[in-house]
Recover the amino acids of this structure.
């Protein structure tokens, strides 16, 4: 069953965040990740719990692959680049 890494990101340093994007994508792809949403126009209809800023959705073959990407040795040195240049909420969800 597919799994999705969903990230809401508030970019604070666009130039450095661009570097993060270039490094993270091939690592996600190595674990079977396919970017389904990477920013783009949003039509937010309800905000009772949170107001999203910039959404990223990466589809993985399963929960194990999604977790393996997020927890991987390859991604570990890239995470700080994201954290230093953006604030985010990240969740891994099992698909239907």
């Amino acid at each position: 069953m597919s799994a999705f890494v969903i990230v809401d990101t508030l970019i604070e340093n666009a130039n450095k965040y661009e570097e993060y994007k270039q490094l993270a994508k091939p690592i996600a792809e190595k674990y079977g990740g396919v970017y389904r949403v990477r920013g783009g126009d949003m039509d937010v209809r309800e905000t009772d719990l949170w107001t999203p800023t910039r959404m990223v959705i990466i589809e993985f073959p399963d929960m194990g692959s999604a977790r393996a990407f997020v927890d991987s040795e390859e991604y570990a040195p890239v995470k700080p680049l994201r954290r230093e240049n953006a604030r985010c909420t990240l969740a891994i969800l099992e698909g239907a």
